[in-house]
Write a structure and sequence with these properties.
Order of helices and strands: HHEHEHEHEEHEHEHEHEHEHHHEEEE
Structural class: alpha/beta
Number of helices: 13
Distance between the termini: 68 Å
Strand order of the largest sheet: 7-6-8-9-10-13-14
Length: about 425
């Protein structure tokens, strides 16, 4: 029996499951049994069939740059896995669709991947805005959904049972180590006031306001708080409000271009904070040139470093660089981690298909186990939130280096920040 016939049998079984939610357990078991008989091998394809993994990514539109990074990370993972003989002795094959950074499109993409293309497994998209609707669809189908870039609190407030975030920490916790460091300083030395500016985006606001909550609890006052639309390009008025506040510290809940534009606007006003922290932007390779190489002392949280001594990271960096001509960054690493997490579950459960029993085994295994990855060991709580911490990087001596935690430290944290 061909793979197509087997998949048609499984699709019929799943549709019956979804349409007959109220059917008695015995009848449901008969339907599943009939589906298995019709497929010839139930939940298993033959060893000659590839394991097909479906993913929708923003390869065009607002999130296209990080989306392409995630795509490269997924492709690097697939190549390395196949070079090692595949999963369960089968080659892995990626089927990638472009959701154009559109939430409606991402849903139709995953509907196609699950229903028409009958992929065996799913990988998640980029950004909270796309993760939430696509995860909801995956949940409806009962499929494992590991994702590399949906870290905002709202992702984990939906009640998803099958979702896992493949990074060290959720957005609210990205700055935990920095907050701890600041609050451990003598009161006479620590910053006393902070100005915040955040893109109207769940991830960006999550990083900035997660830090704000912790600092405010420690007695550090907020003196400016600006939220701006994702398409903002002129940061003159926002920068002026921050400069006028004379805040000791500035925190940007940023992606890339907005972070660059905000910093340039602050530099032009000669605003000189004693600490400056921005999410995402300072970790990008183009950042230094974009802000005129005035980087010294700028901080950023990161879940990944190419220098990490985790066992699989050396091979990832070497093979990725060989494949794409440059070393991987955080987006690529989180995508690669997604593949590692799914692969660990597949190897443990010894299955890779849409069969409900297989998907349930994958989910349950991840709920109770730790996975070794290129971003370190990961384990999750009942909502799919990773239980670790992001590192803190700072531009020191013309390069971005880890300053927190001490175990991974590459340079001492500079405080106060030099003028920019």
């Amino acid at each position: 029996m061909t793979r197509t016939h087997r998949r048609q049998g499984r699709r019929k079984g799943r549709r019956q499951d979804r349409r007959q939610v109220g059917v008695a357990a015995g009848t449901l078991a008969l339907l599943l049994s009939a589906s298995a008989c019709g497929s010839g091998s139930g939940s298993q394809d033959s060893a000659d069939d590839p394991i097909v993994i479906g993913v929708s990514l923003p390869l065009t539109g607002d999130f296209s740059e990080p989306g392409k990074g995630v795509e490269r990370g997924y492709k690097a993972w697939a190549k390395i896995v196949n070079d090692h003989g595949g999963l369960l002795g089968r080659e892995v094959e990626l089927k990638i669709l472009d959701d154009q950074s559109n939430a409606d499109r991402v849903v139709s993409d995953y509907e196609q991947l699950i229903g028409r293309d009958e992929v065996d497994l799913l990988f998640g998209p980029f950004s909270t805005r796309l993760v939430v609707p696509s995860a909801r669809l995956a949940e409806e189908y009962g499929m494992l959904f590991v994702e590399p870039a949906g870290a905002a609190p709202e992702v984990f407030e939906q009640g998803f049972k099958n979702l896992f975030y493949a990074a060290p920490a959720v957005a609210d916790d990205h700055y935990n180590l920095l907050a701890d460091h600041i609050l451990a300083m003598p009161e006479s030395e620590r910053p006393k006031t902070v100005a915040y500016a955040a893109m109207d985006d769940p991830f960006a606001q999550g990083t900035a306001y997660g830090l704000r909550e912790k600092l405010e609890k420690g007695g550090i006052r907020t003196v400016a708080d600006e939220v701006y639309p994702p398409n903002t390009t002129d940061f003159g008025s926002i920068a002026a409000k921050i400069a006028d506040s004379k805040a000791d510290m500035v925190v940007g809940g940023t992606q890339y271009q907005d972070g660059v534009n905000l910093i340039v606007a602050l530099q032009q006003l000669d605003y000189q904070p004693t600490l400056a922290a921005f999410s995402t932007a300072p970790t990008e390779p183009e950042f230094a040139k974009a802000i005129g190489n005035k980087t010294e002392g700028i901080l950023a949280p990161t879940g990944y470093t190419q220098k990490a001594d985790y066992p699989s990271n050396k091979e990832f960096v070497e093979k990725y660089t060989e494949q794409f001509g440059k070393a991987p960054e955080e987006d690529e690493a989180n995508a690669y981690t997604t593949g590692q997490v799914v692969a660990a579950a597949v190897e443990a459960a010894q299955c890779a298909s849409q069969d409900p029993d297989c998907q349930s085994k994958l989910v349950e295994w991840l709920r109770g186990h730790q996975v070794e990855t290129v971003v370190g060991p990961l384990k999750w709580d009942g909502k799919g939130r990773p239980q670790s911490a992001h590192m803190i990087q700072q531009w020191v001596g013309g390069e971005i280096q880890i300053v927190l935690p001490e175990a991974q430290r590459e340079a001492d944290l500079i405080y106060p920040k030099p003028t920019w």
